[in-house]
Write a structure and sequence with these properties.
Blueprint lengths: L1 E2 L14 E3 L4 H10 L4 E3 L20 E3 L9 E3 L3 E5 L4 H8 L5 H8 L4 H6 L2 H6 L6 H8 L3 E6 L6 E5 L16 E9 L8 E7 L10 E10 L2 E11 L3 E3 L2 H7 L8 H18 L6 H23 L2
Parallel strand pairs: 1-2, 2-4, 3-4
Antiparallel strand pairs: 5-6, 6-9, 7-8, 7-9, 10-11, 11-12, 12-13
Length: 306
């Protein structure tokens, strides 16, 4: 790889990508406007792990975000924790250890090994083009907000829920049109009234075609589930969140019967079949459905136990 601040002539055959090294967000946006085929590069943990990443005859140029200090900032305000796109997963955990609930901390700590967590960044984890992993699922479940800067001369900033970054098949919707700059995590999201459940089957990175990731936040009041938020991720096939399904969950009253749980899981199976990419293994869908069945039964048992 070589560094440049302008476009070089591209030789035929294999080549090293040109690496742009902006020092500000505005400069990064400017690099992208002038070189639309270049891609933003955070830690590169996932990109470099892909087969045939390098050498490659169609190697895209790189806009490295490593030199932008604003993207590496993390701080705790009164009602939220704000972290830049270049903050690592481990840095997020270190700061969050004073703020996050036990369940949330455990969910984020399940991301890869300590080596991966020290290298992988928030931006890289959230913005892979076609794979959704644990961090996307967890933060979307908790309605965490993200700031994106549009690739335009004005570099307009927009705040949106993490869930709005993806379509139902898990594709990142802003790969070439925006730069994710930071996230904002409310510090009151896991109070004693709000419950957070996280489950993962198999390794999302090592075995994405079989893995299932599930996040569920809810509260219980007077025997009813309140304000549920469910996210189910099949890493290489589906990113499922549905207001209609959350509304269905909110009709739950305790104690739950097996018929009621069966009705809910059948609806999930139907929704997932319509949401996933083609050629997905039906067993992966069935695993997601069974996982929700287990979670609902656990919630029911805990409720009955008082």
């Amino acid at each position: 790889m070589h560094t440049n601040t302008g476009a070089d002539a591209v030789p035929e055959g294999l080549r090293s990508p040109t690496v742009f090294t902006p020092k500000t967000i505005s400069e990064a946006i400017s690099n992208k406007l002038k070189n639309p085929d270049a891609h933003f590069w955070a830690g590169g943990t996932y990109i470099m792990s892909r087969p045939n990443f390098y050498p490659n005859t169609n190697q895209r140029d790189i806009i490295s975000l490593a030199g932008i200090q604003d993207l590496s900032r993390i701080y705790h305000a009164d009602r939220y924790l704000e972290a830049g796109a270049m903050v690592t997963i481990q840095q997020l955990l270190t700061m969050g250890s004073f703020i996050f609930s036990k369940e949330l901390y455990k969910a984020i700590n399940s991301i890869g090994s300590s080596v991966i967590r020290n290298q992988a960044t928030i931006g890289g984890s959230l913005c892979t083009s076609d794979m959704r992993f644990t961090l996307s699922c967890v933060l979307a479940t908790l309605n965490v907000q993200a700031e994106v800067r549009m690739v335009s001369k004005s570099a307009t900033a927009r705040w949106m829920p993490i869930s709005k970054l993806y379509d139902r098949r898990g594709n990142f919707l802003f790969a070439d049109s925006a730069l994710l700059t930071k996230i904002r995590i409310p510090t009151d999201m896991t109070t004693s009234q709000n419950q957070f459940v996280f489950k993962v089957l198999d390794s999302p990175m090592l075995n994405p075609s079989e893995s299932v990731i599930m996040g569920l936040q809810y509260s219980i009041s007077q025997g009813n589930i309140m304000t549920p938020s469910l996210c189910i991720t099949l890493p290489n096939a589906c990113f499922y969140m549905s207001q209609d399904f959350d509304n269905l969950l909110s009709t739950i009253t305790f104690p739950l019967t097996s018929d009621k749980i069966s009705k809910i899981t059948r609806r999930l199976a139907s929704d997932l079949k319509l949401s996933v990419r083609q050629n997905v293994d039906q067993l992966q869908i069935e695993r997601a459905v069974r996982l929700l069945d287990v979670v609902l039964n656990d919630i029911n048992i805990n409720y009955l136990a008082g």
